[in-house]
Amino acid sequence: RPRVLSGIQPTAGSFHLGNYLGAVRQWVALQETHDAFYMVVDLHAITVQQDPAELRANTRLAAAQLLAAGLDPERCTLFVQSHVPEHAQLAWVMNCLTGYGEAQRMTQFKDKSAKQGADRTTVGLFTYPILQVADILLYQAHEVPVGEDQRQHIELTRDLAERFNGRFGETFTVPKAYILKETAKIFDLQDPAIKMSKSASTPKGLINLLDEPKATAKKVKSAVTDTDTVIRYDAEAKPGVSNLLTIYSTLTGEGILALEQRYEGKGYGALKTDLAEVMVDFVTPFRERTQAYLADPETLDKILAKGAEKARLVAAETLAQTYDRVGFLPGRR
Ligand code: TYM
Hints:
Blueprint: E1 3-8, H1 17-30, E2 35-40, H2 42-45, H3 52-69, E3 76-80, H4 86-95, H5 100-104, H6 107-116, H7 123-138, E4 143-145, H8 151-168, E5 176-178, H9 213-221, H10 239-252, H11 256-262, H12 268-294, H13 297-326
Parallel strand pairs: 1-2, 2-3, 4-5
Helix pairs in contact: 3-12, 4-7, 4-13, 7-8, 9-12, 10-12
The protein binds ligand 1.
C-alpha cells in the first residue's frame, strides 16, 4: 500500500468547512486505499502564542473532530505530533539543509509575519515549513493530501528530500501533493475572492463545523453571490455561486452539471435554501459525534497513545537512518 501523511492544526473552537472539504474528507477516503498517517500538529501550533490549557483542550478537540469526520483508528494511524519526538529531531537536520533565502520565499510565512510585525513573529514561525518537511519525510509518504495553500510547503519537501538524497544517498521518498482540483480552495462566503480561513475579516464568511446548525444555515443563506440570476459554475465570472455549487456537490455527491440543470430557471434563493439544509444535515451529526468523543477523554487519549506508538516505529527507523547518513556517531546500543 502506498503511504499518505497529513496534519492539521489544533485551532481554537472548530475546524472550518475549508479544512474539511479541502483536506479531511480526502483523509477519510484515503484510509481505505493507503497506509495512512494523520496527526494533530501541536508543535506547529506554538509558532504563535498559545495558552497551555487551551492548547491541550484544542488538541483533544481536533482529534475528536477527526474521528467524528470518519477517521477510524483501525484503518489509519492517528496521533499527536509532539508525542513523536522524531519530528523535532529530523526538523533540525532539515533546518541545516535549507537555505535562508529559500525559507524567506515561503509565502505563508511572508503573509503571517507581515500581519504580526517582526517583533511578534517567532523564529518558529519562520522555520514552520521545515518542521512540516520533517513531518512528511519521517514517514516516507508518497502523497500528502492537503488544500492548495500547502502546495509550496510540499514543493519545499520535495526539494529537500532530493537534496538530502543527492548529498547523502537515497534516504527519503520524494512525496507528491495530493490536491483535488474541485476542493483545493474553498472560498469565504462573504468574499469569494479569498479562501475560507479563521482569519477572515467577517465571521459571516466562515463556516465553523461545530457552530450551532441554525447559525450555519443563516450564513449559507446570506452568502454573497452576484447580480446575475443564473446558476452556473464559472469560477472566474461567478465565484460566489461556483463556491456554493462546489460545496453542494461535494457534500451530496451530486455532479455540478446535474445541479445546474436542476436549478435552471430557479433563483439563488432556492439554491441557498437547499444548500443550507444540506449543510445542517452534515454538521448536526458531526457535532454530536464530536461531543461524544469529547465526553470520553480517556478513550480518546488511548487512541492517540496507540497511534503515537505506531507512528514512532516508522519515525524512529527513518531518523536512525538519517542520523547515520549525516555522519553522527552511533550512541547507546
Ligand atoms: P491547517 O491546519 O491550516 O489546515 C488543514 C488543512 O486544511 C486545508 N485548508 C483548506 N483547503 C481548502 N480550502 C480552504 N479554504 C482551506 N483552508 C485550509 C489546508 O490546506 C490543510 O490541508 N501546515 C499545515 C499542517 C501541517 C501539515 C504537515 C500538512 C503540518 N505538518 C504535514 C501536511 C503534511 C496547516 O497549517 O494546515
